[in-house]
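Question thread 4412

I'm putting together a teaching handout and wanted feedback from people who do this every day. The idea is simple: show students a protein as raw sequence, then show them the structure tokens that encode its fold, then repeat with a second protein so they can compare. Below is the first pair exactly as I plan to print it.
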Amino acid sequence: MKRYILALAAIILITGIGFISLSNGKTKTVKEGGVLSVNDIQADPYAYKGAVTITGVVADKSRFRNLPQEVFLIIETSEAKICKITGCASFYLPVKYAGNHPREWDEVNVTGSFVEGNLLFKAANVDVLKHLTF
């Protein structure tokens, strides 16, 4: 009887490990309306082909001196709200946009696509959702 219980426990443990390893963070969750967050694309931005919409908060780019004028940075909205500064993000998504740039702390939806072989997101449209204030 003890052997059966031990064997059953081992099978359950192995099955649990299998399920966990299959969902190792590579699944991509799409929010309502097909809008992705900065965290959604952070793990593998090259996996997204074609036009996508990403939401985030415009970050201060003064620390990044090599960025061209037409590029701004966005970070995860929840990370900006927790930190209360835009300079503490673990990941910055560079967005190239030819139109008027939003201000720091603007929550935006950027629609466009990734430049082939580059982390740069080329936006065709930038919609300001709101300006965050603390």
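The second pair follows. I'd like the answer to focus on this one:
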Amino acid sequence: MHKMLTGSCTIMIFISWTILILRMNDWALQSPIAERMILSYAIVMIFSGIFTVFTYIKADRNILMKVCLLINGLYAIVGTAAVFLIVAT
């Protein structure tokens, strides 16, 4: 069980980077789609951070989880800032 949770947190690190692949398409740069895509990725990043914090507290505290906690925590902060910037404008 602990290895599955650690693996999930590790995979969540790389999910956020798939936006770079999607943004290479012309349709992803147009106005309504771009905002929705960034907002959905920001929500995923926030969820990843929260999930990793709870997994770290409840399940496992090995070195890989510490790295995942650091990276996904930063993702959660950046995702929160992105949501705030999109909603505030």
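Top answer:
Good format. For the second protein you could add a caption like this: Residues 31-58 form the longest helix (28 residues). The chain has four helices and no strands.
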